[in-house]
Design goal:
The protein is of the alpha/beta class and about 290 residues long. The strands form two sheets. Strands 1-9-8-2-5-3-4 form a seven-stranded mixed β-sheet, sandwiched between helices. A two-stranded antiparallel sheet has the order 6-7. The protein has eleven helices and nine strands. Helix content is about 50%, strand content about 15%.
Length: about 290
Amino acid sequence: MRLLLAFMWLMHWLPLPVLGRVGEGFGSLLFRLLRSRRHITMINLRLCLPLLSEQERLTIAKRHFQVYARSVLERGILWWGSESRLRKLIQVEPAVPVDAIQSGPVILLCPHFVSLDVAGVAVMLETSLCSIYTNQRSKVFDQALRKGRSRFRPVKLFSRSEGVKPIIRAMREHLPFFMLPDMDFGAKDAEFIPFFGVPAATLTAAPRIAASTGAKVIPVIATMLPNYQGWKVAFHAPWENYPGDDMGAATLFMNSYIEKEILKTPAEYFWSHRRFKTRPQGEVSVY
């Protein structure tokens, strides 16, 4: 892992067009080598995008591996690049909602696009935040990840096992909750909500926290700009009248919103994650 970090540090000095192409080359190689992840990716695409041909799904899968590998190398720029370089490469639309954050509780809802770390940096260039963090298996990589994500401003990171109380306290201190809403963490605190029509164990934390705090929910979508120009981080308008009284309906609305964003840049979504790992009782694994 130390060698990987040293390689990432060396590579971050390269111009982004060069670094991006190197990352995509690695991704093409990994698509051939990582059979299990390729299998998971193709299963997810068949379940979620059934109207596409198998060749179209294969094209998306290959491109996904390319942009995912590229995003890993590009973290070197996020962790060690200068602030001026980051501000040139990160196109924020329309702006980080600092006024909304300072006026009351805010949930920044950031789905798992491969460039989601860019969204975190865009926020941290302007204000601190709080989030849930899972320790990495490698202590060396874990330390580098924590340091890289908090080098501009302090960040409060909580374990999932701590529950929502520390998050709510931090939000009341005007720290936005940077939330990743679309991973499969099992059936606990989740409901089986359709995701592209497939029942998926989906955390109901976003609507529940919004309901208990009166927080505004602001979606944040991070994608790659064309021609290796950098990244775009789009802060969408806060959801109106959200979440309402029905947490299931509110979670379905969230999934539907994410689906629409995925269809804009399908290869950049995190398809290699086992999104449908947890199944309703009696159903066999899709993988």
